[in-house]
């Protein structure tokens, strides 16, 4: 089934591919698609086709997508009229489309629905001259028949050999019954000629075979795969022969023009069924139905049951065939198959591009001479440039073929036609594939993939690789990169950053680009040498004519002398290959009897002429929309995607169904035949490129793409095309969601299912929807749907996680980089910065499972030990592997292995322990200094290097103590532990200042071991799980069970420091000391991390929430602590200084309930205690009053405009004073509407551009606009009265001048100022005490004194949700963490007696991705738009400690949690953590974290990641 099912490549072929030798290669297929051609008679199987469309295809599609496959059905008889279905051109298209399905489909490619109709036998579209003469001879005795045949066929001498062409229906009068007569005449003539032996059996069948038999012949009977790729579903109506002449039965069988039974067709049908049964019985699936008069009727239970069984069998059969093919592919799969597929794609494209090559021989010779001159010296890369269509690609491909002859047959040629495949779309992917090919071609170690994925380092790696190749001194390298300007536009700023300014000897780099493009200007700024630029010029006039003659000959076509004169006259001295190709495409369609019109003289005019011809044939609207969608797509569209998109385009459907109605009353689809016809006429204008497992269609010529944009995508049309594409990739109209349309012949709106593919983020647990991830952000952006882009993509954690997990952080950041310049959104920038923190600064990848890591040299180097017994020395500054040391370890492979490393920086030695062997390596020479072997039956349990006494001390599992000289490796002592018997060592730690080893044992013993003695330090009640010593060796912590005991160093060793142990609620797994030994941080299996004060006798200071898995790893660097787990790919970074400040903030006293909090939670504003004529400004971080403002009147309400830096104070006098927060000058005053009216409440809109001031029954709405030095306040723009007896208690204003206000009696109203209209909402039962609005201003929440919270839909003016709080008092203030407009927000509220708040807030933070300190009314404006997880909000007071069960909440693995106290990151490798090390990169002075990740079950490797 095409190249997808080919077996593994032979070693010889792999080597030829790596060297760039094309040879004879079949067309590659990188598509992972199931494409099924549906064959049936148009008038016989309508019910079956609709049943499959509704019931079977969605099931198969879901199955395929879960296996990473796309699914497409090709039913060219859907939605068209009978005359189109039986047209001779349709027959050719059907067979061509069936051939495409067979070449590209994985598994099934052909399904036939066969009933009791054979179908009409179409007249052959072409009859060659010799065959025509034979048929004509048979008709000479019947001049009328001969005259009829001659009228329908015309001789075309432009074909080689000459051919008689059937004229299309539009070229002559309506055929009526003459067409049937023509068919019978030709069949009779062919029958006689075959009887006489004048024509072959194959020629005879062209006149006696229906379309469905042609399709079954090609799809099954002549297919090499037989029934493995094809199925025939046979509908067998029992007793039909007894009722065949009934009127109801005649509809199901073939009839003649007079309505009588066509017995000849029935005979041919019987013969076809017999051939199928004899040749491929396994492909035939029969369904027997009893004959009834209303057989084809949805209400007929037997028929309905048959349709259900047919659909179920289709699903089962298709899924089985797909699985069988996947098993074959899995067995044939080879390592690095993606690379060989990529190379084959470009080499095959190169062969096709040079199949017809003319001219430029002198240019190629000059290039070859330049390559030979540069062979043995450093030189500048070469750049070929010229206008679009001038032939640069053909030149590059031809040069690639000639290079081995120029530089030697061993020369490695790497060719990439940029933009034609997934791995050539952007610089990062390009260098990824090129580097792999280079390494394999030259036998070099494969590059570290993680380094290649980081664009900042890939250039350096690429340069190093080129120099490495150059130094081999015997194999040249030529790297050709065509169309550099086709690299992804999101990488424009970086697209040549990887380009070497000089190529070393024997390495040649040749680029091509279009003149007049920004890329050429960028190259000229980078490569200053003018000799590096070679202009590609047009062919001469004679070469142009030769080129067209070669093209015609390849198509077995010629032109008449008159047509040739017209052609040359239209192309005077034209040598532009692109223009010549367009002229050829027009001329090849000329028959010898065609009278041509003059062609356009320029390439642009010719391209417009092509579009006009397409519009005349297929309709202007269809051509405009199809080409518009392809050009608007980011990388192209698959055929299945394009047909779905056209099915969503109401304008296209209205044009298509202008003259006939669709075949179904339940669903509406675009007729695929119309697309296939247009695609055929587009021909060379389209190209296919493999992207994300799909074969995508794209415009092949830049000139045509530009013309399409001018003709079809001007004004609002481009946004419309992007809008429909956004609807498709978002799945807005999938999964049964119906879309309304009005068709011309129906006259009323129809609400029909378009049956387009669903678009979930994940097709299965491991298969992501890569096409949606790639295309949707692009189309939302260009459709101008910015809010949807923020909510559904850039602010959707599900999206962010899926994009990061299925791709990479780099791809996710590319999306943000693409959208950010077009969005005025600080939130987008904040999320991007948070994602940057998730990206490792350096990735280190070993070849086997890494078991141990040590960081040294002040954080610039690391040494790792792997399970394959290699030691690798890494530079943490560059990510490069410096040295690899092979350490064989224990010779017994069955022996339990233990790994440990110690670095002696003074003596430059590395001590590595593996099993029963200790090896010492010289760090400078990487040579083995000496080796110490133990007893194979008693492996080491713990090893320590005691530098103070130059000793190496080891304790075995059996309790044997061995002491060596760490300088020479000489054994000094070997003895058995005296103080411990019958216990196994479980952990140990070295105390360097005392030159001792402290070891813990399985029954709770803790022993101090030195070179000469050992003694029991403590007997703990449980096995010792961990031992940790402080940096100055003054403190020792021993973990056992759920407890940790602290010891203080003394002259004898250690003694217990505190009377009580530190207690957890679960087993303690890890601990780390604070920076000044005044803290200890411990982690336990319940995922909690506890911070203890040793200065205060073990007081619990803080309980931190880990990563949702056992806290098995803690490491500290300075004041930063990192927590991780073996069972999680996430880690958190905590700042100990912030933790201490957060836990014991100084409270402020406010008993008014009028508090306002700044966005960042840094400042709190409230009336001064004892003097309500002043406002206190409270500094939360310092825990004290920073300043106060004098209002000269009692304060009634406060509002903070953080962006405008303004504080609004509403006074009892009715005045509103406005204080600039960055200045104490220029206080603004807003007077009341009436004298002596007190301000009740105020509200700012989310964008801070509207201010509402509410009095008893009056509301003023004012505008706030930017100004210098302070914003200006204008208005009131609107003033309205409530006309109610009660007074206003709360107010909220929207940007569109709508005002939500609540009353003291509980009434709630929405007033539209612009329309002077009020909308009442359902009233509360008591005074409305607080109101708030969501960011999108679609939702609102209200709180009342009865502790009831209500969520409202402001568009529909109705309630959505109620929450009742069991509180000792009423709700007086309200804060909201808005998620999205489509889901309920999280809410935080507080009571009057709980107003002493800190920077962390007194309440739980249910959204872990939001800073806890920002839980305030104003904080939502900055961070509330980011969609949180699914956790529910709840009100509770701060507990003395957090309970483990409250913290075990489900999390999205890749959520970014930016707490003030913790930064939450996700390893891109999505593996559990096995080791951590905090270090300081001296050059950058950045705190850095080295992470050792556990291997996944299906991976043999694991990785080291360095995060900054």
- How many strands, what sense, and barrel or not for the largest sheet? 5 strands, parallel
- Which sequence of strands runs across the widest sheet? 2-1-3-7-8
What's the alpha carbon Rg, rounded to whole Å? 40 Å
Q: Please identify the structural class as seen in this structure.
A: alpha+beta
Instruction: Tell me how many strands there are.
Output: 73
What distance separates the N and C termini? Answer: 49 Å
Mean pLDDT: 82
Number of helices: 37
Question: How would you sum up the global shape?
Answer: globular
Structure description:
The chain is of the alpha+beta class and 1508 residues long. A five-stranded parallel beta sheet has the order 2-1-3-7-8, with helices on both faces. Strand 1 (33-40), helix 2 and strand 2 (70-74) form a beta-alpha-beta unit.
Structure at a glance:
With 1508 residues, this protein is of the alpha+beta class.
Using brief descriptors, characterize the structure shown.
disordered C terminus, 5-stranded parallel beta sheet, 1508 residues, disordered N terminus, alpha+beta
């Amino acid at each position: 089934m095409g190249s997808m099912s080919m077996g593994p490549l032979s070693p010889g072929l792999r080597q030829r591919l790596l060297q760039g030798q094309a040879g004879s290669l079949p067309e590659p297929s990188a598509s992972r698609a199931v494409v099924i051609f549906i064959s049936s008679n148009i008038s016989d199987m309508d019910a079956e086709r609709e049943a499959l469309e509704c019931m079977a295809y969605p099931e198969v599609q879901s199955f395929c997508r879960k296996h990473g496959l796309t699914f497409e059905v090709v039913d060219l008889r859907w939605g068209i009229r009978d005359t189109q279905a039986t047209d001779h051109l349709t027959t050719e298209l059907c067979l061509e489309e069936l051939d495409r399905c067979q070449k590209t489909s994985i598994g099934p490619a052909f399904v036939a629905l066969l009933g009791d109709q054979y179908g009409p036998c179409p007249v052959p579209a072409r009859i060659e001259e010799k065959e025509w003469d034979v048929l004509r001879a048979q008709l000479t005795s019947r001049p009328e028949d001969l005259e009829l045949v001659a009228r329908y066929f015309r001789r075309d001498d432009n074909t080689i050999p000459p051919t008689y062409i059937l004229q299309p229906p539009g070229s002559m009068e309506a055929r009526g019954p003459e067409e049937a007569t023509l068919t019978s005449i030709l069949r009779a003539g062919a029958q006689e000629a075959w009887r006489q032996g004048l024509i072959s059996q194959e020629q005879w069948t062209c006149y006696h075979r229906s379309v469905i038999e042609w399709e079954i012949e090609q799809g099954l009977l002549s297919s090499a795969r037989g029934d493995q790729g094809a199925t025939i579903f046979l509908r067998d109506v029992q007793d039909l022969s007894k009722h065949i002449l009934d009127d109801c039965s005649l509809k199901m069988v073939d009839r003649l023009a007079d309505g009588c039974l066509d017995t000849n067709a029935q005979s041919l049908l019987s013969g076809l069924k017999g051939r199928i049964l004899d040749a491929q019985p396994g492909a035939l699936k029969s369904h027997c139905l009893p004959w009834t008069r209303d057989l084809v009727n949805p209400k007929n239970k037997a028929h309905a049951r048959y349709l259900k069984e047919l659909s179920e069998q289709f699903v089962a059969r298709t899924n089985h065939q797909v699985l069988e093919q996947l098993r074959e592919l899995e067995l044939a799969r080879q390592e690095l198959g993606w690379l060989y597929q990529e190379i084959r794609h470009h080499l095959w494209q190169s062969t096709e591009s040079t199949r017809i090559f003319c001219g430029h021989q002198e240019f190629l010779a000059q290039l070859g001479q330049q390559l030979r001159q540069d062979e043995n010296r450093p030189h500048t890369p070469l750049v070929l440039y010229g206008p679009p269509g001038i032939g640069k690609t053909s030149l590059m491909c031809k040069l690639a073929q000639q290079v081995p002859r120029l530089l030697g047959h061993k020369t490695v040629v790497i060719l990439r036609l940029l933009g034609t495949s997934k791995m050539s779309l952007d610089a990062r992917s390009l260098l990824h594939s090129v580097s792999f090919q280079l390494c394999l071609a030259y036998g070099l170690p494969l590059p570290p993939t993680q380094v290649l994925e980081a664009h900042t380092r890939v250039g350096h790696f690429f340069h190093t690789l080129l120099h490495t190749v150059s130094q081999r001194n015997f194999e040249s390298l030529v790297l050709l990169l065509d169309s550099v300007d086709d690299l992804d536009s999101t990488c424009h700023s970086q697209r040549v950053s990887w380009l070497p300014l000089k190529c070393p000897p024997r390495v040649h780099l040749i680029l091509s680009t279009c003149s007049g493009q920004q890329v050429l200007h960028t190259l000229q700024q980078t490569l200053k040498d003018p000799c590096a630029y070679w202009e590609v010029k047009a062919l001469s006039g004679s070469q142009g004519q030769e080129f067209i003659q070669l093209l015609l000959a390849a198509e077995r076509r010629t032109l008449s002398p008159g047509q040739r004169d017209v052609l040359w006259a239209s192309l005077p001295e034209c040598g532009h290959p692109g223009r010549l190709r367009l002229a050829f495409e027009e001329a090849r369609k000329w028959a010898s009897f065609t009278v041509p019109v003059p062609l356009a003289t320029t390439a642009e005019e010719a391209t417009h002429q092509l579009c006009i011809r397409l519009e005349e044939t297929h309709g202007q609207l269809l051509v405009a929309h199809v080409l518009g969608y392809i050009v608007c797509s980011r990388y192209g569209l698959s055929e299945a995607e394009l047909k779905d998109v056209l099915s969503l385009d109401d304008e296209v459907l209205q044009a298509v169904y202008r003259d006939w109605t669709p075949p179904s009353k339940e669903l509406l689809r675009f007729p695929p035949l119309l697309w296939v016809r247009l695609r055929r006429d587009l021909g060379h204008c389209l190209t296919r490129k493999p992207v994300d497992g799909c074969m995508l269609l794209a415009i092949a010529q830049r000139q045509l793409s530009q013309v399409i944009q001018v003709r079809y995508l001007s004004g609002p049309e481009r946004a419309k095309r992007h809008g429909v594409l956004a609807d498709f990739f978002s799945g807005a109209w999938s999964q049964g969601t119906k879309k309304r349309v009005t068709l011309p012949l129906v006259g009323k709106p129809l609400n029909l299912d378009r049956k387009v593919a669903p678009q979930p983020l994940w097709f299965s647990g491991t298969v992501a929807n890569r096409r949606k991830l790639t295309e949707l952000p692009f189309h939302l952006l260009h459709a101008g749907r910015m809010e949807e882009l923020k909510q559904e993509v850039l602010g959707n954690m599900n999206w962010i996680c899926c994009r990061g997990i299925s791709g990479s952080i780099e791809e996710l950041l590319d999306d943000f980089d693409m959208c950010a310049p077009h969005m005025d959104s600080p939130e987008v920038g904040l999320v991007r910065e948070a994602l940057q923190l998730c990206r490792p600064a350096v990735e280190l990848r070993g070849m086997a499972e890494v078991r141990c890591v040590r960081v040294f040299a002040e954080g610039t180097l690391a040494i790792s030990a792997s399970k394959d017994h290699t030691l690798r020395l890494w530079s943490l500054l560059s990510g490069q592997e410096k040295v690899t040391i092979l350490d064989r370890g224990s010779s017994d492979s069955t022996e339990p292995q233990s790994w440990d490393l110690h670095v002696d920086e003074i003596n430059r030695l590395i001590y590595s322990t593996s099993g029963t062997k200790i090896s010492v390596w010289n760090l400078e020479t990487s040579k083995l200094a000496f080796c110490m072997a133990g007893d194979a039956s008693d492996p080491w349990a713990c090893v320590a290097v005691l530098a103070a006494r130059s000793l190496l001390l080891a304790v075995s599992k059996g309790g044997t103590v061995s002491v060596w000289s760490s300088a020479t490796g000489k054994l000094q002592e070997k003895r058995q532990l005296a103080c411990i018997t019958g216990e196994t060592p479980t952990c140990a730690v070295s105390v360097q200042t005392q030159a001792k080893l402290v070891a813990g044992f399985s029954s709770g013993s803790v022993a101090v071991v030195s070179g000469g003695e050992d003694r029991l330090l403590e007997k703990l009640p449980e096995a010792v799980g961990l031992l940790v010593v402080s940096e100055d060796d003054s403190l020792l912590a021993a973990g056992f069970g759920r407890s940790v005991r602290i010891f203080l160093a003394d002259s004898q060793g250690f003694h217990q420091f505190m009377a009580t142990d530190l207690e957890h609620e679960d087993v303690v797994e890890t601990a780390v000391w604070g920076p000044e030994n005044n803290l200890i941080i411990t982690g336990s299996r319940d995922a909690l991390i506890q911070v203890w004060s040793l200065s205060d006798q073990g007081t619990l200071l803080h309980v931190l929430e880990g990563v949702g898995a056992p806290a098995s790893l803690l490491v500290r660097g300075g004041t930063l602590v990192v927590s991780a787990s073996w069972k999680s790919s996430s880690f958190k970074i905590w700042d100990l200084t912030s933790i201490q400040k957060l836990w014991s903030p100084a409270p402020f006293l406010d008993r008014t309930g009028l508090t306002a909090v700044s966005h960042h939670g840094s400042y709190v504003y409230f009336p001064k205690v004892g003097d309500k004529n002043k406002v206190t400004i409270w500094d939360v971080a310092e825990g004290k009053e920073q300043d106060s403002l004098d209002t000269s009147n009692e304060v009634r309400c406060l509002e903070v405009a953080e962006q405008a830096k303004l504080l609004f104070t509403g006074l009892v006098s009715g005045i509103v004073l406005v204080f600039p927060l960055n200045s104490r000058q220029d206080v603004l005053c807003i007077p009341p509407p009436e004298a002596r009216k007190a301000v009740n409440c105020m509200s700012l809109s989310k964008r801070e551009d509207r201010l509402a001031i509410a009095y008893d029954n009056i509301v003023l709405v004012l505008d706030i606009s930017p100004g210098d030095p302070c914003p200006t306040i204008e208005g009131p723009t609107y003033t309205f009265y409530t006309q109610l007896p009660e007074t206003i208690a709360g107010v909220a204003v929207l940007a569109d001048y709508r005002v939500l206000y609540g009353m003291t009696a509980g009434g709630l109203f929405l007033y539209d100022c612009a329309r002077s209209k009020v909308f009442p909402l359902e009233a509360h039962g008591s005074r409305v005490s607080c109101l708030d609005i969501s960011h999108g201003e679609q939702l609102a929440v209200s709180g009342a004194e009865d502790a009831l919270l209500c969520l409202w839909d402001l568009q529909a003016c109705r309630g959505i949700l109620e929450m009742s709080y069991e509180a000792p008092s009423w709700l007086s203030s309200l804060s909201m963490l808005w998620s999205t407009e489509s889901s309920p927000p999280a809410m935080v509220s507080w009571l009057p007696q709980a107003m002493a708040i800190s920077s962390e807030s007194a309440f739980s933070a249910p959204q872990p991705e939001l800073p806890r300190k920002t839980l305030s009314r104003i904080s939502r404006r900055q961070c509330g738009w980011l969609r949180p997880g699914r956790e529910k909000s709840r009100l509770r007071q701060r507990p003395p400690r957090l309970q483990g069960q409250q913290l075990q909440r489900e999390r999205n693995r890749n959520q970014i949690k930016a707490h003030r106290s913790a930064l939450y990151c996700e390893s891109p490798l999505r593996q559990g953590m096995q080791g951590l090390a905090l270090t300081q990169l001296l050059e950058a002075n950045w705190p850095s974290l080295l992470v050792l990740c556990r291997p996944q079950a299906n991976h043999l490797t694991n990785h080291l990641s360095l995060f900054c």
